[in-house]
Please model this.
Amino acid sequence: MSLSSYHTHSKYSDGKNTLEEMVQSAIEKGCKEIGFSDHAPMIFDCGWSMKQEQVESYKKEVTALKEKYKDKIKIYLGIEQDYFSTPAEGYDYIIGSVHFILKDGEYLPNDLSADAMKEFVDRCYGGDVYAYCEDYYKMMADIVRVTKCQIVGHFDIVTKFNEKMPMIDINHPRYINAIDYALKELSKTNAIFEVNTGAISRGYRTSSYPDNKTLDKIAKSGKPFVITSDTHNVETVNFNFAEEKEKLDQKGYKYIKSLEEII
Ligand SMILES: [Zn+2]
Ligand SMILES: [Zn+2]
Model:
């Protein structure tokens, strides 16, 4: 029996498989639950989120699958709300994420590529990567108010490319201050944090978000974590969950075993 994932993408946004294929894969992998969290429509066209006109059919299709598979798996209708998504309504839960930093009227994607990130930092921040991180974590600090999320998505995604192209020293005082500010603000909310394996399955990192140091800081809040795969295809529905579970168990950190615990 595997833990279940609540961070799941399908063809409704940038995933490769249908909702039903993802459900069947979760059942095969021994998950008791699955939560869908396709990317919500954005206030600008980013090219990979759901379109506004798809929202109703996404909701209908997930609702129909809940009924069809109710004897085999519990399905939740969720959404991944970006800081710049249109408002969400009628979902079982929300993951709140920051994929873009708004700088001088330009939406800078933070997860595109190492080269793109370097170009943004050089062009828009005069090469000051910590100013870029400060802007990101200021938005993160506000993500629960903006998206009404129960789960904070990939909290330190700005470090996505740090293994392949080290740009951020996570021990730099300005980086620590930026993170600590966001954690302080988010600790005032009920939202919990992901341990997200998506960047490992896609070959960007060898460890999950957040990094161990940040994981330890978040754990001090006493909140449980939620292990998620941020999966975009049937192969990675519960990617690396056994290892993540073991890591959290060894550290004595709590994690949820059902979404019911937080919604
Ligand atoms: Zn995301
Ligand atoms: Zn995602």
Remarks:
- The mean pLDDT is 97.
